[in-house]
Task: structure prediction
Amino acid sequence: MLQVTLVDRSKRSVVLTPVGVETVERARKIVKEVEDLVSFATASREPLSGTLRMGTIPTIGPFLLPRVLPGLREAYRSLKLYLVEDLTDRLVALLHRGEHDVVLLALPRECGAVETATLFEDAFVVGLPRGHPLAKERGIKPQHLLGEDLLLLKDRHCLRDHALTALRHLVDRRLAEFEATSLLTLVQMVDNGLGATLLPTLAIDAGLLQGTHLATRPLLSSQVARKISLVWRRGTGRRSEFQLLAKELTERARPNQPCSDRNRET
Result:
């Protein structure tokens, strides 16, 4: 028996005491460590088998997973992969709480005590409306966008931060009034002539621009790519298993040829 008060009860509610909160958190870690131990023992007999909980962000999951998962399932038939899509901050929080085993993120990003394996780099290109004067250029420097309304995803999307970093923050004062909640919405806004944007090659290779008239041009910047990475908690007993998963994802991702010259005016 702990012989401490874990909850405060009233007629209307039951609330954890500070000791109760800490006890629950420690118990959760113990349960997760036991689960990791079981998974480690299983993986030692058969790699990438059993349950694996993976989180992914909306600007990676829909464009990468359809490419890599069919082959992964075929190669590892005993793997039960559960997927959750969410924003970066929440995924990282759930990772540290033990509710995710690994997460697919775009780095750089502060994630706390984790280990990472970079799968590949995902370059940015400039997306422009049909007939835009900049579409005549073979490449676009960040300063060329100073006079343009730049459309980006809403705050809390890491793609927004990576895009601004690639532009060296030169366009902070020219952000358009409207923001998008997804890449699909962002593309439609640009296609309607509301402004320019930055798009990840990963999404374009997956068919993001299908049915639109957007032109894309390379962004000429020293910080032009985000790093698509697999992330897990530091110190986990499943480290070797997650490294194998990262290797498998890397080999199956194989980004297609660069899109630097595609979608020129038609």
Notes: Residues 15-120+228-253 form a domain with the D-Maltodextrin-Binding Protein; domain 2 fold (CATH 3.40.190.10). Residues 48 and 245 are 7 Å apart (CA to CA).
